[in-house]
Amino acid sequence: MTLLRRLSRSTAFRTIVVVLVLALAWQVYLTVRAPGRIAPELAVAVEEGQPLRVSVALDFPPERFHSLKLQSYGHVMGVEDNRIHLRSVRPESVAALAKIYWVDRLELYEDDAG
């Protein structure tokens, strides 16, 4: 009996395969959904290649965890309602931000002063 045939009959192997397929499907879903989360104005600004100010909209009030997680993409300027405002976001980080499952929308941030 070949090794592959023996492995395919193993419950542990089947479980590992199912988990890997589900993880891959989840990553594909996040990748496909990501471009729809980026506002058109932000997509244009990303093409310019300069650091950006980004408003990250969530479907819920952000907690400390969310602010800390987003600090790896830019400096947190503040939190307002269900939004976290970031500055100095690298253009290549915008796509990564859009793949975070709890991020609802990414928009270009323009405060009232500027």
UniProtKB/TrEMBL annotation:
Q: Which UniProt keywords apply?
A: Membrane, Transmembrane, Transmembrane helix
What are the TM regions of this chain, as residue ranges?
12-30
Originating species = Blastococcus saxobsidens
Q: Could you identify this protein by its name?
A: Uncharacterized protein
Q: At the top level of its lineage, which domain of life is listed? A: Bacteria
Q: Would I find Membrane among this entry's keywords?
A: yes
